[in-house]
């Protein structure tokens, strides 16, 4: 057994366009890996996990770094947009504050200055921050493949994305007026650790009493259970009370599947997830 | 002495400018001409026989210059251990490996890339053996034996038995009993372990490595390499953290020496962060059972302590874990009848060793005891502590004398400054306050190695250089030595240079071992400075034609006392040059040995190591008390510490700026180990799963509470200017304070650290069910 | 694979050849001899290797040198003025006792510099957030936070 300090040997390739990315992927087949911000990929390469002889750097690829609102009010966030840029964006803060919040709370300044939203989502490493928020915001994601591209709801990404696909951008619809949001995450060191579990909520209320519509994204759970549809159904059309929030939170925690990790058991994480959902909904209610 | 005293002044560390500039040289920054880069092959198994090692493919790889294995290269019979009883560690084993990550072979190559490639070509054949990871399993009948000749995996046992504890407990009005536990903790050292060994044609070794104790490291290397210790020269550089984790003789240094001798070139061994965590040193997990007898009036009649400590694979330096909890417990609270029985248990894990916070579970148990018993006996918890707190000049069970203590004063002050009495029970839902006391030894008796010798040489321009075998881990020892030399001699700190931690140029020193730097090493520097000053005054007197005691130094000049302001003086440079001309350059010599003769206290043990291991092992004990205010999140179990009041009885405070910083650091260490830092081993592989800063959760700046620091300033009779160890003792009761604060907040008692959120939530749920 | 890259390091333009696999940290320390930037964990967890890249704090151990091509890097060695005239942050770290073993200090100072360059008047929470990637085992962070506060005041006062 050896503890390696060095990154294993590879060739770094720097395509300029999405087309070039696919021609490189086609040429090197399984021998190439995509490299976005690099904070997670380099970590794994140093541990000799998934190391490949060719690394395709995406930093120079044009068309992956848009951050703009279209005429239709849809926010486009390119896959290579840095997390810090999203957190700092006045447009995101104004129209999709939940996304700005989760990006601001993700990792550390260094990680946010290096990490991209696409990398964060695609590598499925720290799914407890960006992905729950994107789900709650009903984001769509554009996936490019060698033969073309598709747009799918972000919550289906885990089914739709193939290993030779490239996630190119997220599309966030404009939110109804007066919509409320909440996000809570649990981490031992809140400003350092990636969230163990988290909950993102987008809530639309009638007269400040009844839940007209709600989406709840869960973090720290398996990808297929990240949208807490059961909990959403409990809330929809009901007068929002502490009791109903507790019931929804319970349903969300039951529906979110998770395993134990080095630090915490699945049982504990489930209890904390319930607390986070409850608090995120309450935060949205008072938003 | 002329001018204002430096003692008690805020003086920035003298080495911090270089560090702020990025100019300070650490071992990891060093490159020697022709240096080779080594990589170590490590055991993937927690327990296995080494059957064979095939290094041929690695040796054929271009760029590889040397390969060593235990089978071929380890001198037989050369086993490391800090005391004879526990020399059980072959630094590059040839028969068996006993934990995942243990060294098996190593390669030195012209680049690190090649070395990493080469180790993958070494084929080791093992025969896997059953293994045991936890002490409670290791003591069971039929458990795998980590060392075949140590039945029951008992590495060592230590007993102090005074008075009649059985009788005392039987006759007590109330007996309190509890079992406390704590996990294995890690140092989390910033600078990865690195050593450069350079074997010289003369047969000598030059070594650059991070060590707290250059002379002890040299001794261990000499023993294991079977060369004279004086043929090994240890150089000290800036060091990125130690915290106890660099106290002994690391296998990496031994391997670097073997490789360098074989290759005939300097060799660097640099570990990764994970490698350091898995393969270097940890702090032992403990099970601490304690019975305390009380009279109705709250007086303790006796304590019966039974502890088990996880040794890890070797007792080589883990042995200290047996003694230190005693040194803490027996000097805090009086116990006329006392039994302390400690077992050190082998396991197939990383080796346990020294750590700055190693004994916290002991003081924690007593602070929980006082809070619980105060309710039973109807006595105020602070009064109960004060009734039992050890007082100055008391003789404790192992026949040591506590020559100074402000324990009682620290309890009163901490309670007062924190508003403990008003706040307790009144802080609102899930918020609470608690108090805890601790102590620590300043120096530890180690035979002739417990003394320090320092000397000072004066230069012809009137400046001087202090030589000490001690080194600096960042606490500020260098600054302390210069401050003391300046105070005694009367020249400014900027005119004093320092040569430290070089085993060739300096005399023997215990190193930063058992907090000995202040009382032992600094006392030696002080005496050397006094000696040098005496010589300066003599020569100046000669020049001025008066006797030395008629001379006074003002600034850099010497005057005849009665003619100050009138006659001419003689400048220090002239004094030094005159001394050179006479063939007697100005020189100071100072030696400090701990006092071991305490016959004036009716103690007739003159050697602390007799067969009952009784006697004065410690020169000065520091004490102190902390209070903690915290909030428990009932939905997650997470604990947020908001405020800490710390009262430090460290004697005279030499340099408050530095002592405060060290105290804040210690609180940070204690908070991490108390609340977040948990080590986990995979039961299926025996491998540690918490080797990174991501998984081993040390605190960051965001977990730092408000800290309010106070000093008692009670001088110690032996410490320099009355100073004692100032960084650790005050805070060793912090876990007791946390536990008591959690009880105040939630009604739940905690007996196990770290109190991670999941454990806390479970306790809260159990409590709600009640 | 070798790449010719050009970096601006501490104000100087340097051209050098780097291997694909080399991190920015390795290039700074081993090829340029700038050993003030420290390797602690080498996995992005400790902040010891923090430098600024076009003004932003980044982890040089988690960045391929080839991807720094054309960018401006400032390391701890680039802060002081002529004759080792300390940057206000360096001076405050020294005077406030914020440096003990000193191994993590360059990383902290660079994180703090990136903060103060963008936000000259940070509050306590913003300071703690800015150094949240930096691990120190000696100081307990108190004097580090005080030093950054004090440097911010001094730098603000100089304006």
What would you note in describing this structure?
The complex is a heterotrimer of chains A (287), B (770) and C (159). Chain A is an alpha+beta fold. Chain A contains 12 helices and 11 strands. Chain A has helices spanning 18-28, 39-46, 83-88, 90-95, 97-105, 109-114, 117-122, 130-136, 157-160, 229-235, 242-255, 266-285, and strands at 11-13, 32-35, 54-57, 67-69, 75-78, 140-145, 148-153, 166-172, 180-186, 197-206, 210-219. In chain A, the strands form 3 sheets. In chain A, strands 4-5-8-6-7 form a 5-stranded antiparallel β-sheet. In chain A, β6 (140-145) and β7 (148-153) form a beta hairpin. The N and C termini of chain A lie far apart (53 Å). Chain B is α+β, with helices and mostly antiparallel strands and 770 residues long. Chain B is globular, with a radius of gyration of 27 Å. In chain B, α11 (361-377) packs across α12, α11 packs across α19 and α15 packs parallel to α16 (517-544). Chain B starts with 15 loop residues before the first helix and ends with a helix. Chain B has 3 domains: 16-23 and 451-593, Aldehyde oxidase/xanthine dehydrogenase, molybdopterin binding domain (Aldehyde Oxidoreductase, domain 4, 2-Layer Sandwich), CATH 3.30.365.10; 31-129 and 190-242 and 246-279, Alpha-Beta Complex (Aldehyde Oxidoreductase, domain 3), CATH 3.90.1170; 282-446 and 603-769, Aldehyde oxidase/xanthine dehydrogenase, molybdopterin binding domain (Aldehyde Oxidoreductase, domain 4). Chain C has 2 domains: 2-78, Ubiquitin-like (UB roll) (Roll), CATH 3.10.20; 82-154, DNA polymerase, domain 1. Chain C is built from 5 helices and 5 strands, in the order ββαβββαααα. Chain C has helices at 24-31, 88-95, 105-118, 124-130, 142-158; strands at 2-9, 12-19, 50-53, 56-59, 72-74. Chain C has a 5-stranded mixed β-sheet with strand order 2-1-5-3-4, with helices on one face. In chain C, β1 (2-9) and β2 form a beta hairpin. In chain C, α2 packs across α5. The relative contact order of chain C is 0.16. The model of chain C has no long low-confidence stretch (mean pLDDT 96). The chains are: A alpha+beta (287), B alpha+beta (770), C alpha+beta (159). At the B-C interface, α1 and α18 of B face α2, α3, α4 and α5 of C.
């Amino acid at each position: 057994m050896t503890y390696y300090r060095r990154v294993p040997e590879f060739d770094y390739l720097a395509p300029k366009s999405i087309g070039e990315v696919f021609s490189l992927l086609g040429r090197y087949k399984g021998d190439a890996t995509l490299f976005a911000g690099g904070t997670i990929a380099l970590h794994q390469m140093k541990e000799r996990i998934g190391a490949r002889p060719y690394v395709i750097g995406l930093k120079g690829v044009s068309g992956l770094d848009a951050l703009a609102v279209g005429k239709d009010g849809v926010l486009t966030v390119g896959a290579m947009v840095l997390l810090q840029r999203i957190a700092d964006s006045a447009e995101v803060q104004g129209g999709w504050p939940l996304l700005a919040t989760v990006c601001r709370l993700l990792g550390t300044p260094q990680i946010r200055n290096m990490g991209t939203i696409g990398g964060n989502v695609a590598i499925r490493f720290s799914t407890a921050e960006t992905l729950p928020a994107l789900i709650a915001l009903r984001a769509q994601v554009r996936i490019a493949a060698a033969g073309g591209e598709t747009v799918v709801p972000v919550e289906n990404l885990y089914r739709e994305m193939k290993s030779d696909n490239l996630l190119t951008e997220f599309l966030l619809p404009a939110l109804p007026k007066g919509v409320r949001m909440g996000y809570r995450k649990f981490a031992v060191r809140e400003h350092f650790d990636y969230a163990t579990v988290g909950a993102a909520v987008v809530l639309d209320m009638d007269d400040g009493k009844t839940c007209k519509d709600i989406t709840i994204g869960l973090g720290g759970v398996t990808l297929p259970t990240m949208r807490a549809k059961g909990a959403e159904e409990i809330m929809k059309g009901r007068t929002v009370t502490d009791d109903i929030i507790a019931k929804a939170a319970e349903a969300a925690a039951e529906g979110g599947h998770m395993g134990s990790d080095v630090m915490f058991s699945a049982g504990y994480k489930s209890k904390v997830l319930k607390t986070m959902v409850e608090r995120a909904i309450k935060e949205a209610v008072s938003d | 002495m002329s001018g204002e005293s430096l003692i008690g002044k805020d003086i920035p560390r003298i080495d911090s400018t270089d560090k702020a500039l990025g100019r300070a040289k650490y071992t990891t920054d060093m490159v020697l001409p022709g240096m080779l880069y080594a990589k170590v092959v490590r055991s993937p198994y927690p327990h296995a026989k080494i059957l064979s090692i095939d290094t041929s493919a690695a040796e054929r790889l271009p760029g590889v210059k040397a390969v060593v294995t235990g089978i071929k290269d380890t001198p037989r019979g050369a086993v490391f251990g800090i005391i004879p009883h526990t020399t059980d560690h072959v630094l590059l084993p040839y028969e068996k490996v006993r934990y995942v990550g243990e060294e098996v072979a190593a390669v030195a190559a012209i680049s690190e890339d090649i070395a990493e490639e080469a180790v993958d070509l070494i084929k080791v054949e093992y025969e896997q053996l059953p293994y045991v990871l936890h002490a409670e399993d290791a003591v069971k009948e039929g458990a795998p034996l980590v060392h075949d000749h140590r039945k029951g995996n008992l590495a060592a046992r230590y007993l102090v038995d005074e008075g009649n504890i059985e009788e005392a407990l039987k006759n007590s009005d109330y007996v309190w009993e509890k079992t406390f536990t704590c996990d294995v903790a890690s140092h989390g050292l910033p600078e990865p372990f690195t050593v450069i060994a350079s074997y010289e044609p003369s047969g000598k070794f030059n070594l650059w490595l991070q060590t707290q104790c250059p002379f002890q490291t040299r001794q261990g290397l000499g023993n294991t390499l079977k060369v004279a210790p004086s043929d090994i020269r240890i150089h000290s550089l800036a060091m990125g953290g130690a915290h106890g984790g660099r106290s002994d003789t690391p296998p990496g240094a031994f391997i670097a020496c073997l490789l360098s001798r074989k290759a005939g070139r300097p060799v660097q061994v640099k570990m990764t962060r994970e490698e350091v965590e898995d393969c270097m040193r940890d702090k032992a997990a403990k099970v601490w059972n304690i019975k305390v007898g009380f009279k109705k009036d709250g007086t303790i009649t006796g304590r019966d302590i039974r502890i088990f400590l996880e040794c890890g694979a070797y007792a080589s330096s883990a042995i200290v874990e047996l003694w230190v909890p005693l040194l803490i417990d027996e000097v805090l609270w009086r116990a006329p009848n006392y039994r302390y029985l400690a077992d050190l248990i082998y396991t197939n894990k990383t080796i346990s060793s020294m750590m700055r916070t190693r004994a916290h579970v002991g003081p924690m148990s007593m602070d929980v005891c006082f809070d619980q018993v105060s309710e039973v006996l109807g006595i105020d918890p602070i009064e109960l502590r004060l009734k039992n707190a050890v007082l100055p000049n008391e003789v404790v069970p192992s026949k040591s004398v506590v020559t100074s203590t402000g324990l009682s004063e620290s309890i009163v002050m901490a309670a007062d400054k924190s508003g403990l009495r008003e706040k307790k029970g009144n802080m609102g839902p899930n918020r609470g306050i608690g108090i805890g006391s601790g102590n620590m030894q300043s120096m530890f008796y180690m035979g002739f190695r417990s003394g320090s010798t320092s000397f000072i040489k004066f230069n012809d321009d009137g400046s001087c250089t202090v030589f000490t075998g001690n080194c600096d881990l960042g606490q500020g020892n260098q600054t302390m030595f210069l401050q003391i030399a300046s105070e005694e001699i009367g020249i400014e700190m900027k005119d004093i240079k320092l040569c430290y931690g070089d085993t060739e140029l300096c005399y023997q020193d215990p190193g930063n071992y058992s907090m000995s730097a202040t009382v032992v090493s600094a006392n030696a520097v002080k005496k050397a400075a006094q000696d040098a000053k005496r010589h300066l005054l003599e020569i100046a007197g000669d020049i001025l034609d008066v006797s030395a005691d008629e001379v006074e130094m003002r600034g850099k000049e010497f005057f005849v006392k009665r003619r100050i302001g009138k006659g001419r003086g003689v400048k220090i440079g002239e004094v030094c040059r005159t001394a050179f001309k006479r063939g007697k350059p100005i020189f100071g010599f100072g030696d400090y040995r701990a006092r071991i003769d305490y016959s004036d206290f009716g103690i007739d043990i003159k050697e602390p190591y007799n067969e009952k291991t009784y006697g004065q092992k410690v020169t000065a004990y520091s004490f102190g008390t902390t209070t903690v205010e915290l909030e428990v999140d009932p939905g997650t179990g997470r604990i947020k510490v908001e405020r800490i009041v710390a009262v430090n009885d460290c004697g005279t405070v030499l340099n408050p700026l530095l002592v405060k910083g060290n105290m804040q650091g210690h609180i940070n260490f204690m908070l991490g180990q108390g609340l977040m830092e948990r080590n986990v081993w995979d039961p299926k592989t025996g491998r540690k799963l918490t080797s990174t800063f991501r998984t081993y959760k040390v605190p960051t700046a965001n977990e730092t509470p408000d800290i309010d620091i106070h000093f008692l300033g009670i001088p110690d009779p032996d410490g320099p200017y009355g100073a004692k160890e100032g960084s650790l003792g005050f805070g060793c009761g912090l876990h007791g304070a946390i536990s008591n604060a959690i009880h105040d907040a939630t009604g739940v008692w905690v007996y196990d650290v770290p109190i991670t959120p999941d454990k806390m939530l479970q306790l809260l749920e159990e409590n709600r069910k009640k | 694979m070798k790449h010719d890259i050009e970096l601006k390091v501490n104000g100087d333009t340097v051209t050098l050849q780097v291997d694909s696999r080399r991190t920015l940290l390795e290039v700074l320390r081993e090829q340029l001899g700038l050993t003030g930037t420290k390797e602690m964990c080498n996995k992005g967890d400790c902040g010891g290797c923090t430098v600024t890249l076009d003004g932003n704090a980044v982890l040089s151990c988690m960045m391929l040198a080839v991807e720094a091509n054309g960018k401006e890097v400032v390391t701890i060695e680039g802060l002081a003025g002529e004759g080792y005239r300390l940057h206000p942050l360096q001076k405050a770290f020294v005077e406030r006792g914020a440096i003990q073993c000193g191994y993590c200090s360059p990383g902290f100072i660079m994180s703090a510099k990136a903060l103060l360059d963008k936000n000259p008047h940070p509050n306590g929470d913003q300071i703690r957030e800015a150094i949240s990637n930096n691990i120190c085992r000696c100081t307990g962070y108190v004097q580090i936070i005080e030093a950054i506060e004090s440097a911010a005041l001094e730098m603000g006062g100089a304006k």
